[in-house]
C-alpha cells in the first residue's frame, strides 16, 4: 500500500483513480501527474515501484498544496469571507447555497432535512 501526502492509497485501484483519494487531486490532475512521472495510468497502485511512488511525491511537492495545506487554505478563505461580511460570507454563515442556486424548494443538501411544521396543536383534555 502506497502512502502519499499522508494518505494510504487503495492497493487494488488503478493509479489514476487511486491518486484521487488525495484531497485536491481529481481525475485530470491525476492523469497529468502520472504522465509527467512516466507511469501508465492503468497500472495498479500495488504494482508501483518505490521509485515511481517517489517520483509522484516529488511532482506533488513541486506543484503545491494538497491535503492539509489545501484544506487549511480553503477554510481560511471561507473565514475571511465571513469576517468581511460579504454576501458569500453570509451565505456560508447561514449554511445556504453560496453560488446563486435557488433555495426556496431545493438546496436540501446544504440546508439539511426538512423541519416539519406544527400548526394549531390543541391541548389534550381541555373542554
Give a short summary of the structure.
The protein has helices spanning 15-18, 27-37, 50-63, 67-84, 87-93, 108-111, and strands at residues 3-4, 7-8. It is mainly alpha-helical and 127 residues long.
Topology summary:
Layout: E1 3-4, E2 7-8, H1 15-18, H2 27-37, H3 50-63, H4 67-84, H5 87-93, H6 108-111
Antiparallel strand pairs: 1-2
Account of the protein in words:
This protein has 127 residues and is mainly alpha-helical. It is built from six helices and two strands. Strand 1 and strand 2 form a beta hairpin. Helix 2 (27-37) crosses helix 3 and helix 4 (67-84) packs across helix 5 (87-93).
List keywords for this structure.
two-stranded antiparallel sheet; 6 helices; mainly alpha; 127 residues; 3% strand; single chain
Sheet/helix structural class:
mainly alpha
How are the strands ordered across the major sheet? 1-2
Give the overall silhouette. elongated
End-to-end C-alpha gap: 72 Å
Rg for CA atoms: 23 Å
By DSSP, the count of extended strands is: 2
**Total count of helical runs of at least 4 residues:** 6
Percent range for β-strand residues: under 5%
Show unreliable segments. Answer: none
